[in-house]
Structure formats: structure tokens, C-alpha cells
Amino acid sequence: MTLLIDFKYMNKLLGSLFFLLTLAGNALAQKNYNASETKYFDLIHTELDVKPDWQTNHLEGQAELTLKPWFYPQEKLILDAKGFDIKKVVLNNQTVDYKYDGIKLEIPLGRPFNSKETIKVNIAYTAKPDELGKIEAFKDLEYKGLYFINTDKTKPQQVWTEGETEYNSCWFPTLDSPNQKHTQRISITIPKNFTTLSNGLLKNSKENPDGTRTDTWVQNIEHSVYLTMIAAGEFKKVTDSTFKAFEVSYYVEPAFEKYAYHIFGRTPEMIKYFEELLQTKYPWQKYAQIAVRDYVSGAMENTTATVHGSGIQKNDNQIVDNNDDGVIAHELFHHWFGDLVTAESWANLPLNEAFADYSEYLWANHKYGKDEGDWLNFTALNQYLDEAEDKQEPVIRYGYADKEDMFDSHSYAKGGRILHMLRNEVGDQAFFESLRLYLDENQFKNAEINNLRLAFESVTGRDLNWFFEQWFLKKGHPRLTVEHSYKSGNLSIEINQTLDSLNDLVYQLPLQVEIGTEEGFTQRSLFLNKKSQTFDFQLEDKPTYVKIDPNGYALAVISQNQSTKELINQFENSKSAIARFKAFKEITSEEASDGNISPNPMFDKTKRSVALKALDDNFWKIRELAIHKFFDYDGDDFLKIEKNLQSVIRIDSRSQVRAAAILAMKNFLNPQNDLLFRNALADTSYTVRAAALEAILINNPSDATSLTAKFENIDDVNIFSAVAGYKALQGKAEDLNWFETKIGQLSSGELYQTMGIFGSYIISADLNTQLASIPFLKDIALNESAWYGRFSAAQALMLLMDMDEAQAALKEVFSAETEERLQQIYSQIPLN
Length: 832
Description:
- The strands form seven sheets. An eight-stranded mixed sheet has the order 5-4-8-2-1-11-14-13, with no helix packed on it. A five-stranded mixed sheet has the order 16-17-18-20-19.
- Mean pLDDT is 91; it is low at 5-37.
- The longest helix is centred in the middle third of the chain and has 19 residues, at 350-368.
- The chain has 832 residues and is of the alpha+beta class.
- The chain starts with 16 loop residues before the first helix and ends in a 6-residue tail after the last helix.
- The chain contains 28 helices and 29 strands.
- The chain has four domains: 1-32 and 244-476, Neutral Protease Domain 2 (Neutral Protease, domain 2, Orthogonal Bundle); 36-234, Immunoglobulin-like, CATH 2.60.40.1730; 479-584, Aminopeptidase N, middle-beta domain (Immunoglobulin-like); 700-832.
């Protein structure tokens, strides 16, 4: 599973909306129903005949499960079956009585069955995922396994599933545990104009007399229950003709059919790259990817059939800003790490997610170069470190309070960085050979962290227990202070590890140091294994700079004392984008030389000079950061800075940098810039167009109405935000329908991103418009699939409740129960 939006790919709403989502109060997870009963049986095969009903949001189902006891004879079978109507249970062709509490289905077997006997149980049932909240244990349920997307709010009619962690038992009875693997046959009956997708291969498609069609999908290679999926809707299937080894296909809404190759088209190259890297062929029969509406996660690696949120669907004007290779690589890599070899328990989730997270770095480094790879690695490291300020747990943790707690930056970002350090520890060849052995020895099985350690030890011949114990099984990270000095030809580097009640472990840690000289720079390797260590290097001349961990590969907080002169030399001479980025941030910090906070650091001549140089840096992120330093600048060298920013808008290769330059200049009050902004309205990038539109509209030009009319129907969240920002200031009643229509088309993440603009519009509007907006907001607040979408609408309603005139009307519209529910939604956002 991919962390939602952008830990990775909004700055991952706090780094990761998915992490927030897992903290949002999932009662099903909080109850953490013990699946210990499942260990007594082995699920062998599942056959499902299902028919979704969009009128009731029910799923009519017929399930046949083939199972056998593990070892000990068993006299009853207990299945996970959440919120069903159970109609009939047949055991080995005999109708039997059963016990059912809405959560577990208990079936007496009539006699003891031993491990050499199989049983078949047939269950006729109705799944009612939208009604799970009627069960006390599930009243605050966030996930529900099966999701109906209907035709209201201009969204297309779809149905899709999300099984991780243990939510597939919300739509079929099963043993819902990651260590249960089965083969399956799923027949799904849908309107004949719909396209379906499931695991494995489509074996049969039959039209029925009632205008429906039944598609039968067969997955004949065993995989974990949580990886089972179905999806159906009006999708266009695009088969990638560039790949011949097996079917690679992309399922998109009709409007995006012509962009499917541009969205997903690097997938075949990724498959070949990962196969070569891992020395292991892709192990499944096909690879499909589908984009669905209102998806509740970032993406999900269901075996042979990855599900993405609709945000991955982009036209060429959006793809130019940023493709989604990271999430595509992440879910594909899971098909080795997670699907082929699956974590034995949720405690071992990093065996799935750390590898998938690391694959994003592998692909970025391979496809787009070292700077892009290192930036991704550095961003992920800081995501973990941000989380670690409030939460520190072992990466592999058996004592979690809630299995959903495992889906955090420890399992993902920290886990991925540990793998990179392990690679540096053993070397590239041994690292990938060890991964090959791990996959080979554990294929189609479940694994624990020790299986990975043993594979590395078998290949390298080294005892790596210290590494796995230190990084995977203990919490925290090293905190280092670094001082360096030069005297009489000797460079001395002193490194101290901070030990206290928060962390008393002395880490063993390899480090790189980059030493700048007049002739260039050199890199040396260090190894820490003591609380305090000093490293000496003989140098003929005093170094121009000394930088510990120049590439940002160390999973540590490093405090190093460097002079401004050293930092400038590091910025100007290091080949590492991360070292230059760190130096630039330090040089241009808001702290003035006297220790006070400067109103604008660019008023300092030295800082301003470095920032101007940074506008020409080879790495676009540094150029973008430099531009942010000049937002609304009005000091010395103004004309020079303005000229440089104008040049960026005209010629910079990255759309994000061009857009940043436009926004930096929007308040410069130079009429000549208006022409530059208007030319940018034709940029290939929607992000640049949106920035230009915002910059033009901020001055309320005479043609503002015609400009907004030109852009108001473009389906892009950035352009919507620019147009909506202008309309919000006007507060015109006639714009309410436009707001509601456009917002109704947004994903939950985009709702969270833009609902504040709608809130501003409501405050600016007259009372009648405010009241007219209430049913729309109420519907989102109570019914949006993801909590952060509901929260954003509840937040807007709370704004109205603070306004006396609107408050009285709200009291008439809402029952006390509804108001209480809205308050509950509003208070759900986790701020810790």
C-alpha cells in the first residue's frame, strides 16, 4: 500500500495523509479482533459469485471455501464475516446450523476433521458495507472493504474493494489474516456496459438475458487474502503493446484513454529493471493498474491488479508537472515484496512496505539520475525524523496497540532508509544477491524479519544480527554532534553520540565525510561504534569545507558546526545536490548574524548573492528553494533579482520552478510583468498557468471575468484553486452552483486542499447563499468516503456555526444528533 498523497506524492498532507488516516479512529482496528482462530485452518481455495446492487449498496454473494485443519483435529470452523446477512450455510453438501454475531461466523463440523481432510463450506450471504456502522463494534468504522461509487455529484458509477489490513471479510467470508494464502475464482455480475477487473486472468465473459454480464476471473497462483480484489465501472482498458512477456494493461476513465501510455507507460521498463536488479522474474500472470474514484488509500498492490486513486489520471498538461512513477514503482515492487513473499504478520509489515518505499529511490536513481534519487531518499528520511519527534517505535513491533499503527513513517520511510544503509554496509552485489536468495527461499510463503537476516548472512558469511537488532528491532536513531579543526596538516573530526533517557543506545554507523580542497573534494569513510570518536586525516592544506554525510544517507540527526565561508564553499563546489541544498538552507536561514530573526534574510548581501547563484543550480529543487527566498522581495538589487526571475519564467526547464517564480513576483507591481504572466497562460503546464492566473487576478484586471470564464471549466485542482480564489473574494451568489459542481468532482485529498477556499467564499457571500450551501456541505461531511474529506466539509460548516445569522438557520436544518456527529467529525483530526 502506498502512503496517501505525497508523504510521497500536498507534502504528504503533513507528510502523509495516510499516516493521519491510520490515526483517525478506526473502531474496527481498535477492537483489533484476534484472528487466532484462523491459525487452526488453512484456507486453500475460494470461489465467489457476487452481484453488486447500486440501489441498495449491497453485494449479493455465494461463497465456497475449501479448507483443511493445520495440524490438530478441529470440530468447528470460525470465519471472519463482518456485517453480513447470512442466508444459508452448507458444509460438505449438508445444510448446517451456525452461530453468527455480525463479526464471526461459527460453523460446527459435526465431528473432528484432521489435517489430511479437506472441507468445503458454501455460504449464501448479503454484504452490506455501508451499514456496518449499525453494529456497535463498527460504529466509527473508517474502512469498509467494499465501496460503491454512485452517479451523484457527477461521479461515475463504480464499485471497488480495499482489503488491507483485514477488510476483505467485509465483502466475503474468509480467514482474514495476512498469513492465509489461497487460490480463487471470482464471478462478478454487472451491467453489460461495465468493465471488470480482478486478480489473475479473465477466463470467461457471458452476457445474461436481463441485460447484465458475468465475468469470471481466476487466480490460480496462491496469494494472501488481503490482496484479493474486484473493481467494476465504465473503464477503458488499454493493453500495452510494447510489452510481450505477459499482459500489461491500464484501466482508466474514458476521458483519459488517450493519456494512458503517458500515465503508466514506464511500467514495462520498470518490470524489466526490477527483474534484472532482483534476478527474479515477475512471478504473476499479468499486471494491470486501475484508477478508481474516492479511493481511501494512496494505492494498493492487489496481486496482478493494482488499484490507484483517480488522481493518477492526468492529461499531458498535468503530467508535465509530475508523473507518478514513484507510486507506480512502489506498487509494482510489492509484487515481489508483499505479494510473492508476504509479511507473516502485521508486526512484520516493513518486509512489505520498506522494500516498496525503497523501490521509489531505486527507480528515481535509475531513470532520472542521482540527484533525483538522493532527493527522494532525503525527503523520506525527514518524513521519518518529523514523525520521530512525537513517536518512536521499533520498525518491527510485535506489541502494537492497533495493527493500523504499523502504517506509518517507521514502516515506510525509516524502513526504506535502513535498507539503503544495509546496501552500503554489505555492498551492491551482496545486497541484491541476498534479496534474490530471500525471494527464492520464501516465494509464495510468509516471512519474518529473521528470514531476511538469514538470507543476508548466508550470502555474505557475516553475522549481521547487530545490524538487524539495532535498526529493525530497537526504536530511535542516532543523534550526532560534529566538530572539526585543522592544525599543522592534520584534519581532526570529533563525533559524539548523544545518549539520554530518550535513547541510550550507542550505534554502529558508517558515515561518509566530504572534504573540500582548493583542487576539488575527496570523500572518506568513517565507522562509528563509540559514544565519542575522533578521526584524523593528513592534508597538505586547510580544507575549504568539511561535510559529514554529504548525500544524506545516514539515518541520523547530525548537528555540525560550519562557518559561513565553509558553507559557501560547500554550496559552490559539492557535486552532491543534498550537500548543496543543506548548505544553501543554512546560509540563507532567517537568523541574522546578531542571532535575531531577520524580516527578510535576502536583505543580507551575502545571503542574497548565494540565492542569486542558486537560481542557476543544476538541481531544480535548489532553484525552487532559491526563488522562495525572493517572494515579495523589495530590498537592494531589486531590479537584478526581478530580471533573474523573469528569465526563470521564460526558460527554466521545470514547471514547478517557473510557477514559483511567477508567484514570487505577483506583488512586484511592475506592469511589464503582466505581459509575462499572460504569456504564461499558454504554458504547457497547468501549474504554471494556475500561478499566472493567480498573479494576474490578484490585481482585479478589467478582463477578470472573461479570464476566469476561460479557465473555470478546466479540470485541474490548481487552476480550480486560482479561479476559486478570485471568485471567493467576490462572494457572488451565482457562483455557488459552479463551486458545488467543481468541488463535487474532486477527490477527498483535493477537497481537503481546497475546501478552505470554499469557506472563504461562504464567508464573503450573503446569508441566503450561505444557507443554500448547507445541504451540499452536510452531504460531504456525513458521506464522503475518506475522513479528511468529511473533516474539510465539517470545518466549513463550523465556520457558519460561528456566524450568528447562519447559526440560527443551521439549528433548524440539523437535528441534535446530526450536529453532534458533525462536531465529532470536526474534532477527529489528529493533531498529535
